[in-house]
């Protein structure tokens, strides 16, 4: 069973209560991140060192410094307090949604001109520089689910498994990529989503 991080302990207790300590053989509660780590362990891991939040901030600073003179809008903001953290957060969002630097560049070109196009151009350049800094020696944890989805297809783990995904209100593209790989490997994948109380007219979850 796969649940969000904040529900893992509660779900483990519920599973033990329902099945008993001996009846739990073969059943396990995992999160997406823990399952990804399990897959990396079974497939020999991934090359490169996982970067910490502090390490990521340092690499973002380097990317900003390398791109500053070429920026159209954000050049003057690079040294402002908190700007690197905001850019780091944006890069994480880009990765979780499967956005690549060239996709941002294309959107900037489509916007042609104006402040919006200039901001996209700057962000695409910063993002591309950050990716260049990390591609050989570092692994960004925000890439883990995409990497684990690919690694999953190279091993027998989860072949024929019965998988339940529960307690999520929604999914991001990196979750969908991982779930798609699970569907190809497992015998069955069932997903239950939280339902708004006003819409739960039958008193159950959809």
Note down, in words, how this protein is organized.
With 206 residues, the chain is mainly α. The chain has 8 helices and 4 strands. The chain has helices spanning 8-19, 32-42, 53-67, 83-96, 101-111, 115-134, 144-152, 173-185, and strands at residues 49-50, 138-139, 162-168, 188-193. The strands form 2 sheets. Strands 1-2 form a two-stranded parallel sheet. Helix 8 links the parallel strand 3 and strand 4 (188-193). Helix 7 (144-152) packs parallel to helix 8 (173-185). The longest helix is centred in the middle third of the chain and has 20 residues, at 115-134. It is elongated, with a radius of gyration of 21 Å. 22% of the residues are buried. The mean pLDDT is 87.
> How many helices in DSSP terms?
8
Largest sheet at a glance? 2 strands, parallel
In quaternary terms, these chains amount to single chain
Query: Which secondary-structure class do the elements indicate?
Result: mainly alpha
Broad shape: elongated
Topology as H/E string? Answer: HHEHHHHEHEHE
Give helix % range: 40-55%
Question: How far is it from the N-terminal to the C-terminal residue, by CA?
Answer: 17 Å
How many β-strand runs? 4
Kindly estimate the percentage of residues that lie in beta strands according to DSSP: 5-15%
What does the average pLDDT come to?
A: 87
Estimated radius of gyration: 21 Å
- The low-confidence runs, each spanning 5 or more residues with pLDDT under 50, are none
Reading side by side through the largest sheet, how are the strands ordered? 1-2
């Amino acid at each position: 069973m796969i649940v969000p991080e904040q529900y893992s302990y509660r779900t483990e207790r519920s599973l033990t209560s329902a099945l008993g300590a001996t009846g739990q053989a073969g059943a396990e509660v995992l999160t997406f991140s823990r399952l990804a780590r399990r897959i990396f362990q079974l497939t020999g891991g991934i090359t490169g060192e996982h970067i910490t939040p502090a390490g990521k901030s340092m690499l973002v600073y380097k990317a900003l410094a390398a791109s500053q003179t070429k920026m159209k809008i954000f050049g003057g903001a690079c040294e402002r307090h908190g700007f690197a953290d905001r850019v780091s957060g944006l890069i994480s969002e880009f990765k979780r949604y499967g956005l690549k630097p060239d996709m941002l560049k294309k959107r900037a070109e489509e916007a042609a001109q104006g402040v919006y196009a200039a901001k996209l151009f700057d962000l695409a350049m910063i993002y591309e520089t950050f990716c260049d800094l990390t591609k050989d020696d570092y692994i960004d944890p925000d890439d883990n689910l995409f990497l684990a989805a690919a690694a999953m297809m190279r091993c027998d783990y989860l072949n024929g498994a019965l998988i339940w995904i529960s307690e999520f209100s929604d999914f991001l593209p990196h979750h969908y990529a991982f779930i798609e790989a699970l569907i190809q490997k497992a015998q069955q994948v069932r997903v239950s989503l939280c339902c708004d109380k006003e819409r739960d007219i039958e008193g159950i979850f959809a």
